[in-house]
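During the second year of the project, the team shifted from modelling isolated chains to modelling whole assemblies. The rationale, set out in the original proposal, was that interfaces cannot be judged from single-chain predictions alone. As a representative example for this report, we include one of the complexes processed in the last quarter. Its constituent sequences, exactly as entered into the pipeline, are reproduced here:
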Amino acid sequence: MYRSHTCGELNASHINKEVVLSGWVQKTRDKGFVIWVDLRDRYGITQLVFDEERTDSAILEKARTLGREFVLQVEGKVIERSSKNPNLSTGDIEILVTKLQVLNESLVPPFTIEDKTDGGEDLRMKFRYLDIRRNPVKQNLIFRSKVTMEVRNYLTNQGFIEVETPYLIKSTPEGARDFVVPSRMNEGQFYALPQSPQTFKQLLMVGGLDKYFQIVKCFRDEDLRADRQPEFTQIDCEMAFVEQDDILKAFEGLTRHLLLEIKGVQTAEFPRLTYDEAMKRFGNDKPDIRFGMEFGELTEVAKHRDFNVFNSSELVAGISIPGAAQYTRKEIDQLIDWVRRPQIGAKGMVYVKCNEDGSYKSSVDKFYNQEDLSQWAKITGAQPGDLICILSGDTAETRTQLSALRMEMAERLGLRNPKEFAPLWIVDFPLLELDEETGNYHAMHHPFTSPKPGQLELLETDPAAVRANAYDLVLNGNEIGGGSIRIHDKETQATMFRHLGFTPEEAKAQFGFLMDAFQYGAPPHGGIAFGLDRLVAILGGQETIRDFIAFPKNNSGRDVMIDAPAFIDDAQLKELNLKLDIQS
Amino acid sequence: MYRSHTCGELNASHINKEVVLSGWVQKTRDKGFVIWVDLRDRYGITQLVFDEERTDSAILEKARTLGREFVLQVEGKVIERSSKNPNLSTGDIEILVTKLQVLNESLVPPFTIEDKTDGGEDLRMKFRYLDIRRNPVKQNLIFRSKVTMEVRNYLTNQGFIEVETPYLIKSTPEGARDFVVPSRMNEGQFYALPQSPQTFKQLLMVGGLDKYFQIVKCFRDEDLRADRQPEFTQIDCEMAFVEQDDILKAFEGLTRHLLLEIKGVQTAEFPRLTYDEAMKRFGNDKPDIRFGMEFGELTEVAKHRDFNVFNSSELVAGISIPGAAQYTRKEIDQLIDWVRRPQIGAKGMVYVKCNEDGSYKSSVDKFYNQEDLSQWAKITGAQPGDLICILSGDTAETRTQLSALRMEMAERLGLRNPKEFAPLWIVDFPLLELDEETGNYHAMHHPFTSPKPGQLELLETDPAAVRANAYDLVLNGNEIGGGSIRIHDKETQATMFRHLGFTPEEAKAQFGFLMDAFQYGAPPHGGIAFGLDRLVAILGGQETIRDFIAFPKNNSGRDVMIDAPAFIDDAQLKELNLKLDIQS
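Output from the structure prediction step:
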């Protein structure tokens, strides 16, 4: 038996007990006649004490040789501390050690195992097993485990069945790029790893399982952006005999449960915004509504003067930044530079200072009078002391730019409070999205999403106008879930595939099994999927998903700890009937 | 709203309620003036009634057109049935339908959606989504979901943390064959899919997580035997600061909990048998102990006569088959033919009939007298009326053959009661196994398994004799779990790799990260993994794992429903820097 207690559970009630503890040396303080050692395990830290008076001299000497991260087993008596540490649950006691065994030694770790470490990102990833010993990382992983258990318990109590769907499936060129797996037993053929269990969960509905969920790894071979992982985890859900409202209610319930159980936060009914409304008010289909600064559209009221920039713009829109009227010229110039950075791409920015005395000072005073500016203030909701920032141009671009500015200002002003949670639904997404490069339409969610009732005909005449039974759940400016009511009849599905540019042969080759299934009594059904990594990060008050993944990959898709991917044997390649085809 | 109730919940207390139901047509009975339709969903079956007297004629006519597996939504009133069905929870009532909508039609399904279907295995797999509508398959999937939730709740309550380990890892030639995944971003390099999260869970212990579990898919590219899947699910567990006994206790607790919660079966403390003892008594390291027929070793007592077959055998062993003394000559000959089949491979079989009058009649009466045979009966535990079957030859082969005979006879005699559960631990496995083909030793569990204390030196002189801190959990003749206490210091691990034929360079290339980790204070640790597919099947009273997997693959590793694996585009291959290398 390596221990009678953990390093996190002893307190004054255990005084005089003989105990056995095991753990790691967090730190040692050697005062010569007395040595203290902080012994750490997952559960906490307990102070060990060795002194000349009470400790066997051989043990005292051995204690002097202990280094950081040595693994110890100690026996001893729980005694009261003379100077107590009220910040530690074990701070009232210490262990007077009578037996000391070094279970394993340790090299000096490449970074300190402290809440604030001196290790850089790369080093921490290479030695991730040491990084996990640090409280913040360890607590994130424990937190993740807790969230997933809450999800499972809630959904199970609601009658959902967790079903494992296969990982070795079939490649479909549609959507993102698949990871593929060569099949040794089926010469020249490949499996694909699932980008999501989408078709399988639909087949489970056809199979009558009624309410399905799964917490499941998904895979996308995309060029990685910061904080995106080639493998990620989804809470994948599907229900039969439901309309959109049934799904929204069911998963609003889940989200509300998580916020209450995990964060102790009560939430009212989630607002529902149409996609169009969200774009108009926030320039974004995942608006952070913890703060205001909603867009004011000035197009109509700003075009009657000689200011050409506005007159030639499809959209003129502004936001009011609270308390920013006192910005200096230099600060405002920096803001203009910020929106003109290539990442944002605005051509310029017009501003209006709303002075405390009710007057206005703008960068376009030449063109607009106080009455004009007062109207702008009204539309953007600006109060005395605020600064109105106005962008203009193409509608979609301007909204995106202004949304970026809105988020940046909220960040700078500390309005994105990680302890506040503001969920909302975005509904009525467009069914199709125009690919600017190819001129083709592709599915905004995926090709199984159903159009709103009665809109199927619009596909022929005005594809961009067709709205879908598709919805996203947004939390604090992040999309945490998205889904749709699916098509469940073969004809509609065939029409969709045709509009997405599939020939009937391609549709049959890739999704024939699904269209076949639709011939045998497919029920109406729909679902949703949550990005677990992001959900956990946001609930944890953070936004970097990597910190909530035990063994993440870097931006080149590499695991730098195990050094994967790697070259494989020629024999292995040969067995798979493959040759490398590298231009060198 | 598609339904106010499910098809499984209405009873006499709902009489006169107006309800809305949705589901599938299980069957229709058309008596002309009255039509009954059984409407089915996941939760049950409710009878609908349409008749000339009470039903609108248009609806009645529509009801006549309904085919099997049509999807309906109906509104109507709950009424009392005139002839009740006590076998159905909804058997007291029926629905007098006032509105009928066909939500989807269905072709005639290729097999009947009944508990006993007319569909063969291949057809059922191709149309798995229809197969899942059948009660036995659906209930198996629901049962699996229930078992996994019980596992998760139990382990979570015991302080285990579920941590997701990566799926895109690194190929290691050791052990079974990996599935590999070409990396597009890292030219010419490959990830591998995990055969198990073994090294990652060990790193989590190095990382101080203390108690880990994960229910996780694992992958092995092996030539498939019947009822083996290329992807399978493991309950993967690891604990730090434990000895073998701690692990056995912890997971005996889990198993006992499952048997109690899922099957209502109380179990006593699990017996522990050493590997050597199990081989001696049952010829098998996963003995089914629900019944007797333990081996009696007759080698010593059968070699003093002139019977050359026994005299030249390393082992002579027999089992006593209860009540089989009355077998006819023909039946016994068939048994002899059975053990001589190439799959079993015995050269012959000696038998002794233990007559009711206390006398013996054997196939070797020429060589052995009644006193000899009486001694054999004593050693094999044979009673009057039993038949002793004796095999002989090389020890290992004879044991395997006699074990097969023991299992076959238990099957024939109905002694393998699926409602009885007899778990036991097998401990003290050999550390190494001789590969007869290559003459090399390889790890019986895996190369991270620790030898028993003090046996490391034996590795040099008598590798086969070294016993490991390795254990299996056996239930009803199936290995449901296995694990070991791991090596946790770099030197022992390096010694093990050397004995397994790794050069230091190979060991470093493949497991360098683990050996590095062992330098930074690795704690003593150990774990276990359960095969979830098999565990669920056995708890479900069956042995075919395929029946407990939603979308299984066939024996060629194919998913015949989605038709995977499949060929991929040349463009996809090119992006991966690969060429097919097929000899045609």
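The mean pLDDT of chain B is 94. The radius of gyration of chain B is 30 Å.
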